[in-house]
Design brief:
172 residues; five-stranded mixed sheet; three-stranded antiparallel sheet; YbaK protein
Length: 172
Amino acid sequence: MEATVSGGPMKSLMTWLESAGVDYELHEHDRSLTALATARAEGVDPHTFEKVVWVRSADDGDALIVLDANDHLDLGKAKDVLRSGKVKLVPEEELAKLAPDCDPGAMPAVGSLFGLPTYADLHVSDSAEVSFNAGSHTLAVRVDRAAWEKALGVVYADLAAATWREPAWHRS
């Protein structure tokens, strides 16, 4: 059974955006449970809607990893970037305890809200603006990517599993 805490955007996110001077637009959309579905509900390119993955390294160091909605995390790459012997996804049941003021799986792409560093895949830097969940499965924020990364101290690295970025006909 999924726990829900919706009732508005995550208060600490809104406070962080305002105190960091990151301009934002708050958007309400139909309930969606995946980043790709949320990008569709928001009517934005999936390359500009960011999914957030909470990982734990072998030494129990946690981090938030930000990827485009249509990308998948390569745990081997994450292991190398985090300089750890092993990296695993933090289970959703545990996320509910670690981020109690968020709907499970709807954490915003701001690791500092949880005392964590934020890493982002290189492709995230391709977009002038990015969107991500606002702690709810029905609310998202859109921000200037450069202002978000500067305020947060985002570390960019190659973290996405290899995918083709051109149409299939182009590869044949």
